[in-house]
Inverse folding.
């Protein structure tokens, strides 16, 4: 079907944003994912935004049960999944109701007209059928009876009409694949490998029927084509943040020449890291699904004491529970990594929606003086590098580290240029194998808290090492010997040493750099996943000849040592955050600069337009 | 080669700081005396504890050790034992630590059968916080936090462990080093999670709690010595014994009334923990005949080795991990230089 020349030539467009929306059971995530994969293989740059409810199956047909997947494909470098969809595929009235407001005002609306019966409309809360009144007149509406066409396509295979329902997402995928001239082979191959027997045949028939429907029906004038993007040459894969993070951990183990031990308790949106790492046992990765968040952290810390890279993965509510383990890890000075995939909160909050409001708890959420390094990933692919960097710091400085990602990075995906493993850094550290102190009577001793003068890290002596037996614990330790000490001056020394060790890491991380106009009045200061929207907003405003500078932080504690000096160069500092201004308050306190927050807490990432407006507002002197 | 060590090799240079007269001293001595007999090396031994008086124990052993967080020792020790099945990992805990704040971790370590030797010092009181009732304190107990008497129904530690289907469950007490040593030796030899309740006297906040059973004059009639394969009998000349009634209930009887053949024969290796559970519940207070010794000792795969076996099986099937093929595993495409 793809071989014969089309009678209608595709129109070239530079980019398109497609949003697939349907019931939770309609397979929209899968549809979006397949469209993305085909586009990735075709060579487009892309960015995705899965947006789904916390309920596994909310009542069918209701607005609460709508699951959507937005994908932005482009022939040039892009970072966001797009502010405004150009195309909305609505599989039922609920999807239309939930997502129509997002669609471009002259956008293309493709609906499954079979699902606009009286009952469907009622469940979605429509008083009248929007396909029959003129409420959709501003859009280009294409009605396709997808359910019945899928039924007809699969009937000859012997598929019962009820079962054919499940293939209608492939019909929709077929239509959109034709409309945007996607190659069909990747999807066909994938269906063939993923499904068996009648289900496979049914899905393939539905996909082909949808594709052919696009080609033969008169509903569309012509297809479109988004050419491959001129990405840097090399080998690419389409990667989500959670997979990149898991692979980063596998790589970190390889680079440190130490086994990874993951203790984890299932929690959205972090569970995929547990799933992914559980697949890689042949790398020597141990995963334990613990009885609770506390045990998951405890197991990882125990493994760290025993000489593994101890990792625990979680989201906000779990981070709160692991606070006591982090405090112990600060006191024990053992390498330990906590990965927090942030989500809307407090408490259960919005489990499937993104937010980046755990900076305060990461920074301050422990009793007493318990500083620890914080690393934040900024894009799906960057989760790989951030994981390696977090492990590097943990190992070198024998400290717990918090790595922050969020739901948007975790589930979103982008083309990722595969790194050459041989160019990745060596992050291995030596275990202590010898005594390190001589007592006045000449006896050789091991002092577990005798520090490296440069890094202030203590030696890591693991069980099994003869002659270095020692005890560690949460009680304050004597500087050097590590013996229990309640001495006032010693406690002060230890509190200051622990703080100095973390502060000193500033000398071992990259300096902050300015993107954009160094002589601008305005500097945006970002961290984490806001990178994509800030990048887009900075590009847009600079193309409009506005002067804008941008600094993005990957290390939040300690911060780059030149950050204060850089910030003081600017008249205005705007800090876009998916919280109520947490980083903004930290930099104000830290550097005495008049930073202003730009905040959003809707469970959604910033759009570029929101940040463009904020930038223009400042520059216009509002 | 079996390491040759003496008690001195297992004793750290730290001053022991329990209250004078504390039952913990006897337990520490029993462990330090036993270790040289086990043919293991101090550097391959790890003691992990939680918080409480007993949890200071690791500081006094010249091994690797961690004094961790209240209740979390079984979880932390699980990490050590799963990461390093080559190590001997001991957990030192108390009744508050293991059964109150750490109850969840204890039962899950037991159900997973992690290769740990868990010593629970049960003194039926919170000592380190100066005398509140614990989850094993008897109903009616008057303490600082229960001036009108505790209304909490206590846990029976062995019943909890057996309910979690622990593969090794035993009871001993701090006054009998020989008995302790025998039980600890068996617990150490067991592969998987071994759970030992040690009745331990807190002479400051709950002195004499177990006198009804453990006082010299009481022992003969109150202590039931469980021996695998032997009829369960006790008292002067073994005049008392344990039988199972037709209702399934265990009862204490006079042997003269029922005959030796009627007595229950102790079987620590029974796959079903039901009978051991009934034995654990034979006594509900510190004034009734109470069984000591090994209640249950069955073979079940130990968790750390099973985790290791899955790793080995995966490596066998897929070969050793290769980063480049991992990065390509979800499909890739080439972008040509333009």
């Amino acid at each position: 079907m793809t071989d014969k020349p089309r009678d209608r030539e595709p129109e070239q467009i530079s980019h398109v944003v497609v949003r697939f929306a349907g019931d939770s059971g309609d397979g929209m995530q899968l549809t979006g994912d397949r469209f993305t994969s085909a586009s990735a293989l075709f060579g487009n740059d892309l960015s995705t935004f899965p947006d789904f409810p916390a309920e596994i199956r909310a009542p069918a047909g209701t607005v609460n049960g709508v699951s959507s997947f937005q994908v932005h494909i482009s022939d040039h470098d892009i970072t966001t999944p797009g502010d405004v969809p150009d195309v909305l595929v609505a599989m039922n009235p609920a999807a239309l109701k939930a997502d129509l407001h997002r669609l471009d005002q002259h956008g293309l609306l493709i609906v499954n007209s079979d699902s606009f019966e009286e009952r469907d409309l009622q469940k979605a809360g429509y008083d009248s059928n929007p396909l029959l009144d003129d409420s959709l007149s501003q859009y280009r509406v294409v009605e396709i009876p997808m359910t019945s066409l899928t039924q007809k396509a699969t009937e000859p295979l012997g598929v019962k009409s009820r079962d054919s329902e499940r293939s209608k997402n492939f019909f929709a995928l077929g239509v959109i694949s034709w409309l945007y001239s996607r190659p069909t082979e990747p999807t066909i191959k994938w269906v063939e490998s993923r499904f068996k027997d009648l289900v496979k045949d049914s899905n393939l028939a539905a996909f082909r029927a949808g594709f052919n429907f696009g080609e033969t029906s008169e509903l569309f004038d012509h297809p479109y084509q988004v050419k491959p993007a001129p990405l840097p040459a090399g080998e690419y894969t389409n990667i989500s943040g959670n997979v990149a993070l898991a692979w980063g951990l596998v790589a970190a183990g390889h680079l440190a020449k130490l086994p990874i031990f993951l203790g984890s308790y299932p929690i959205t949106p972090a569970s995929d890291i547990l799933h992914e790492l559980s697949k890689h046992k042949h790398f020597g990765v141990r995963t334990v699904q613990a009885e609770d968040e506390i045990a998951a952290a405890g197991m990882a810390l125990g493994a760290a004491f025993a000489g593994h890279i101890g990792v625990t993965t979680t989201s906000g509510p779990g981070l709160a529970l692991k606070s006591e383990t982090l405090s112990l890890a600060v006191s024990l000075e053992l390498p330990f990594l906590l990965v927090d995939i942030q989500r809307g909160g407090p408490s259960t909050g919005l489990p499937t929606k993104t937010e980046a409001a755990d900076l305060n708890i990461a920074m301050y959420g422990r009793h007493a003086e318990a500083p620890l390094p914080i690393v934040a990933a900024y894009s799906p692919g960057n989760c790989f590098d951030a994981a390696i960097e977090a492990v590097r710091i943990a190992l070198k400085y024998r400290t717990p580290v918090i790595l922050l990602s969020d739901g948007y990075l975790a589930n979103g995906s982008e083309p990722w240029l595969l790194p050459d493993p041989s160019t990745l850094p060596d992050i291995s550290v030596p275990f202590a194998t010898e005594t390190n102190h001589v007592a006045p009577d000449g006896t050789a001793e091991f002092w577990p808290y005798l520090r490296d003068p440069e890094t202030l890290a203590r030696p890591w002596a693991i069980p099994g090492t003869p002659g270095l037996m020692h005890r560690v614990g949460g009680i304050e330790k004597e500087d050097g010997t590590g013996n229990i000490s309640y001495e006032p001056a010693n406690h002060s020394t230890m509190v200051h040493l622990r703080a100095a060790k973390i502060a000193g890491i500033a000398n071992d991380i990259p300096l902050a750099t300015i993107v954009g106009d160094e002589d601008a009045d305005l500097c945006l200061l970002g961290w984490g996943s806001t990178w994509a929207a800030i990048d887009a907003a900075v590009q847009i405003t600079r193309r409009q000849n506005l002067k804008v500078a941008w600094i993005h932080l990957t290390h939040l504690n300690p911060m780059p040592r030149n950050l204060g000096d850089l910030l003081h160069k600017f008249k205005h500092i705007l800090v876009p955050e998916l919280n109520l201004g947490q980083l903004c308050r930290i930099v104000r306190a830290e550097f005495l600069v008049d930073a202003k927050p730009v905040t959003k807490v809707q469970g959604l990432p910033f759009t570029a337009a929101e940040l463009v407006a904020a930038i223009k507002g400042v520059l216009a002197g509002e | 080669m079996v390491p040759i060590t003496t008690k001195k090799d297992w004793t750290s240079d730290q001053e022991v700081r329990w209250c004078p007269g504390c039952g913990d001293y006897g337990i520490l001595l029993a462990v330090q005396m036993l270790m040289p007999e086990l043919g293991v090396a101090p550097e391959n031994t790890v003691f992990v504890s939680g918080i409480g008086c007993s949890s200071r124990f690791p500081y006094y052993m010249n091994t690797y050790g961690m004094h961790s967080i209240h209740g979390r020792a079984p979880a932390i020790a699980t990490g050590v034992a799963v990461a390093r099945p080559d190590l001997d990992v001991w957990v030192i805990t108390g009744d508050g630590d293991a059964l109150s704040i750490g109850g969840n971790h204890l039962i899950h370590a037991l159900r997973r059968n992690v290769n740990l030797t868990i010593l629970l010092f049960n003194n039926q009181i919170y000592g380190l916080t100066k005398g509140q009732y614990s989850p094993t304190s008897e109903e009616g107990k008057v303490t600082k936090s229960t001036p009108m008497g505790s209304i909490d129904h206590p846990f029976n530690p062995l019943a909890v462990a057996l309910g979690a289907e622990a593969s090794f469950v035993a009871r001993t007490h701090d006054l009998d080093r020989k008995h302790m040593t025998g039980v600890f030796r068996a617990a150490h030899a067991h592969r998987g999670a071994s759970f030992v309740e040690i009745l331990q006297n807190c002479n400051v906040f709950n002195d004499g709690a177990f006198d009804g059973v453990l006082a010299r004059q009481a022992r003969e009639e109150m202590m039931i010595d469980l021996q695998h394969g032997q009829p369960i009998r006790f008292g002067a000349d073994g005049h008392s014994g344990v039988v199972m009634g037709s209702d399934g209930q265990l009862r204490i009887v006079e042997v003269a009334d029922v005959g030796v053949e009627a007595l229950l024969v102790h079987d620590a290796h029974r796959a079903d923990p039901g009978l051991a559970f009934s034995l654990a519940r034979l006594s509900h207070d510190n004034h009734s005949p109470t069984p000591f010794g090994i209640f249950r000792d069955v073979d079940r795969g130990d968790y750390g080795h099973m985790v290791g076996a899955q790793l080995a099986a995966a490596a066998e099937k897929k070969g050793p991990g290769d980063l480049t093929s991992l990065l390509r595993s979800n499909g890739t495409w080439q972008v040509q230089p333009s």
Q: What stands out?
A: Chain B touches chain A through 62 residues (CB under 8 Å). Chain B has a mean pLDDT of 97. The first helix of chain B runs from residue 24 to 34. The first strand of chain B starts at residue 45 and ends at 49.
